[in-house]
Amino acid sequence: MTLGPADDGVGRPLGPVVGIVVVAAGSGERLGAGRPKALVEVAGRSLIAHAVAGLGEAGFTSVVVVHTPGEEAAFRAAVAGAGTDAGVEVVLVPGGADRSASVRAGLAALPGDVEVVAVHDAARAFTPPAVLRAVVAAVTGDVVAAAPAVPVADTLKRVDGHRVTGTVDRSELVAVQTPQVFPAAVLRAVATEGASATDELALVEQHLADGRLEGRIVWVPGSARGFKVTVPEDLELAEVFATR
Ligand code: CTP
Ligand code: MG
Questions:
Q1: What pLDDT is stored for residue 10 in this prediction?
Q2: What top-level class would CATH report for the domain 18-242?
Q3: Which ligand is nearest to the CA of 199?
Q4: Which ligand number lies closest to the CA of residue 38?
Q5: What confidence score (pLDDT) does residue 201 get?
């Protein structure tokens, strides 16, 4: 089923069984394209198709795509070619009202034998395959969560309304991307009904902070290509990354 990036040559997976959930059920308000962001085309194909192709290139053979409710047919059409070309089996499930609900829907659609789960944003359609593989490989031993991250380029200010009140020490900050990867039991334990956060790492952080869980959260070097398509200007950059 959802095998990891490599096998031993006779079909047995090396390493844990990995389940991939691509969350693509958002409406893309900030992009304002008049249709779900994941269906917006860049260099002739949809963002969700680019995302599936990247996962295929990284060696993953099966993904669950969590789509905008009511848009199953459009998503099926969008991923059909990409899945076939990349050798990826795509399972479609409808998402929820917020990202956490969509993650839960994806998690519920994974087979029971999955040992490690990667949650990836469709909006980060150009994450390099090497980053996808590296973050999955980082979940070992006492690691309870891993994600790619990049240094923060801008100087960050603390503000109060329009008043600048201070400078944040950038050296202790990184910007986190996806996929965010977890032992399956950990993600199932933290991504429960009512648990809501802007990313899944934050849910694990809460469980570590109050002693419900033990272990380490780690980050691996991400890539500028793993940026999240958010506003219309991002499509210009996406076009460049898609055609190289
Ligand atoms: N997502 C999801 N289900 C939701 C909301 C978001 O699956 N209910 C997904 C999006 O499809 C996206 C990822 O989470 O791939 C990151 O979210 P974001 O970039 O905020 O996408 P949107 O919510 O679609 O965009 P916006 O916030 O501008 O409406
Ligand atoms: Mg959003």
A1: 60
A2: alpha beta
A3: 1
A4: 1
A5: 97
pTM: 0.94
Ligand 2 geometric centre to CA of 26 (Å) = 6
Distance 163 CA to ligand 1 centre (A): 30
Token representation of residue 142: 């006492």
What are the extents of the domains in the chain?
18-242
The alpha-helical segments, DSSP class H, found in 87-169 are 99-108, 129-137
In the prediction, which pLDDT does 9 show? 61
Q: Going by CA atoms, what residue is nearest to atom 13 of ligand 1?
A: 121
Distance from the alpha carbon of residue 99 to the mean position of ligand 1, in angstroms? 6
CA of 98 to the centre of ligand 2 (A): 8
pLDDT tens digits, residue range 182-224?
999 999 999 998 888 889 999 999 999 999 999 999 999 999 9
Contact between 197 and 102 (Cβ < 8 Å): no
Q: 38: Cβ below 6 Å to ligand 1?
A: yes
Q: Which pLDDT value is given to residue 3?
A: 47
Ligand at shortest distance from the CA of 125: 1
Q: Is the CB of 124 under 6 A from ligand 1?
A: no
Sign of torsion, CA 82 177 72 40? Answer: negative
DSSP secondary-structure letter at 116? Answer: E
- Nearest Cα neighbor of 2 from 63, 48, 53 is 63
Q: Which residues of the chain have pLDDT under 50?
A: 1-5
Report the 10 Å Cβ neighbour count for 111: 12
Question: Length of the chain in residues, anyone?
Answer: 244
